[in-house]
């Protein structure tokens, strides 16, 4: 999972893990995460079997509970900011020809609604674009339209998720600065994942989204029939749910389905744990903010220990700032990454259903051919077309699956490795603060003892 909150600017390319469905811009390492209760989160992360060398589809061990694993595999790479990874970023950046930035949110208030638009800046060297740089403004509904068009055109590809209409509901207020910035980062990630996808990046609707002015895009949206008419037969059938069990589903896709059921369960657990940790950390931070000033007030009435009390208050203040920084890193980086893959799990289950529906159409035709021999020629032609359709769907999903899995492994490793590293830095900072204070108190105590011993 490419942990795509960085300051506005051309996104860095995905590390060498495949450039598609799970591709996008990598985020800078999180500024921190909850350490006081970090073990449950790291234990949960350990339940992810993310070994690149594995050939099977198991990402979670069915026999491993969240409490049984409390450390990363030795094979987990160092921080994404290591020199090796930086070289990968630089090498792959040279291969990219499409850079997209989402920034500069603006509020718009009308008589009937209030909404936010975002500036989308595109820089490209592709020949099919008339210019090398474009700047347009888009609102959330435009992103929804693009996603629906991509799903319609590529029903068996893994379309990146969009942030939900009320992302992180309960943690931030709608249209607050925090909400808007969280959504901006998610929309930036969404577009860059598409740009890095070998198929989606050349979609005509994607190009129109990046280049058309507001009135041109509005006109383009109105073209064509209604939603249900535009949806292909496969998508319509899936929308009304897949009927029955696919008879001839290849083993690989059965394994994918089993994998995603386990993945969905585990990633939802991780998401809930991370939110609970953030909530507890925020409560701890709010209490700590009140704890320091109490010692400062206390020092005013205790002249003999006033300096010591002020020193304690200063240490608490420094630890409070360190906690705030770690908490910000958790809310800006880890929480969005985990929730993004909660959404990805839903998307992948839908993609697998659409593939099964195509397979189901072929199975139904084959059964009909057996029972209606008089129409053998007609059915044979239909079966040939469906066989081609199934093969195309299978190949598309296979390629996207491998790409998505590689990026998911990278994102998970990066996210949880950063959590561990930032917690270590947090504890080291707090420990150094208190050790320095205790050392000063020891020196003061020796000075007082020496003065008392003198005649």
Spell out the blueprint of helices and strands:
Blueprint: H1 38-46, H2 83-93, E1 98-109, E2 114-124, E3 133-139, H3 140-153, H4 177-196, H5 204-211, H6 214-222, H7 227-230, H8 233-239, H9 251-299, H10 306-371, H11 376-453
Antiparallel strand pairs: 1-2, 2-3
Helix pairs in contact: 1-9, 8-10, 9-10, 10-11
Family: Belongs to the sorting nexin family.
GO molecular function, one term: phosphatidylinositol binding
Region (Disordered): 1-38
According to CATH, the fold-level topology of the largest domain is Substrate Binding Domain Of Dnak, Chain:A, Domain 2
Mean pLDDT: 75
Instruction: Indicate the low-confidence ranges by residue numbers.
Output: 1-92, 167-172, 226-244
In order across it, which strands form the biggest sheet? 1-2-3
* Global Rg: 27 Å
The helix content is 55-70%
Tell me the CATH superfamily of the largest domain. Answer: Arfaptin homology (AH) domain/BAR domain
Give an account of the 3D structure.
By secondary structure, the chain is mainly alpha-helical. It has two domains: 95-224, 2-Layer Sandwich (PX Domain); 250-454, Arfaptin homology (AH) domain/BAR domain (Substrate Binding Domain Of Dnak, Chain:A, Domain 2, Up-down Bundle). Helices cover 60% and strands 7% of the residues. It has helices at residues 38-46, 83-93, 140-153, 177-196, 204-211, 214-222, 227-230, 233-239, 251-299, 306-371, 376-453, and strands at 98-109, 114-124, 133-139. Strands 1-2-3 form a three-stranded antiparallel β-sheet. The longest helix is centred in the C-terminal third of the chain and has 78 residues, at 376-453.
């Amino acid at each position: 999972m490419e942990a795509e909150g960085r300051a506005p600017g051309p996104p860095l390319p995905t590390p060498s893990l495949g450039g598609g469905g799970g591709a996008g811009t990598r985020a800078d390492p999180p500024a921190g995460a909850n350490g006081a209760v970090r073990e449950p989160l790291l234990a949960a992360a350990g339940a992810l079997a993310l070994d690149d060398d594995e050939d099977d589809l198991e990402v979670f061990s069915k026999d491993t509970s969240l409490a049984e694993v409390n450390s990363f595999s030795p094979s987990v790479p160092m921080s994404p900011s290591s020199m090796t990874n930086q070289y990968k970023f630089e090498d792959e950046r040279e291969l990219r020809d499409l850079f997209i930035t989402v920034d500069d949110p603006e509020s718009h208030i009308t008589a009937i609604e209030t909404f936010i638009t975002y500036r989308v800046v595109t820089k490209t060297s592709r020949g099919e674009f008339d210019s090398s740089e474009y700047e347009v403004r888009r609102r959330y509904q435009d992103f929804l339209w693009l996603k629906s068009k991509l799903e319609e055109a590529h029903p068996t590809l893994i379309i990146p998720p969009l942030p939900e209409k009320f992302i992180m509901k309960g943690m931030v207020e709608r249209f607050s600065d925090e909400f808007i910035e969280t959504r901006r980062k998610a929309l930036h990630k969404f577009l860059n994942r598409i740009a890095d996808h070998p198929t989606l990046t050349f979609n005509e609707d994607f190009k129109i989204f990046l280049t058309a002015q507001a009135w041109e895009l509005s006109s383009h949206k109105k073209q064509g029939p209604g939603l249900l008419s535009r949806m292909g037969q496969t998508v319509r059938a899936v929308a009304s749910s897949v009927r029955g069990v696919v008879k001839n589903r290849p083993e690989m896709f059965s394994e994918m389905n089993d994998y995603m059921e386990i993945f969905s369960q585990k990633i939802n657990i991780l998401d809930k744990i991370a939110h609970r940790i953030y909530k507890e950390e925020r409560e701890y931070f709010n209490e700590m903010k009140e704890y320091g000033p109490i010692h400062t007030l206390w020092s005013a009435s205790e002249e003999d220990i006033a300096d010591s009390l002020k020193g304690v208050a200063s240490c608490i203040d420094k630890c409070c700032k360190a906690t705030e920084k770690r908490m910000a890193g958790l809310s800006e980086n880890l929480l969005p990454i985990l929730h993004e893959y909660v959404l990805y799990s839903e998307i992948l289950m839908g993609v697998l259903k659409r593939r099964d529906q195509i397979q189901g159409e072929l199975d139904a035709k084959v059964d009909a051919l057996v029972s209606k021999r008089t129409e053998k020629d007609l059915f044979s032609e239909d079966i040939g077309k469906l066989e081609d359709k199934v093969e195309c769907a299978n190949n598309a999903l296979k390629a996207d699956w491998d790409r998505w899995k590689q990026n998911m492994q990278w994102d998970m490793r990066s996210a949880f490795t950063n959590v561990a590293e930032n917690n270590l830095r947090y504890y080291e900072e707090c420990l150094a603060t208190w050790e320095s204070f205790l050392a000063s108190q020891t020196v003061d105590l020796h000075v007082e003892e020496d003065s008392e011993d003198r005649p």
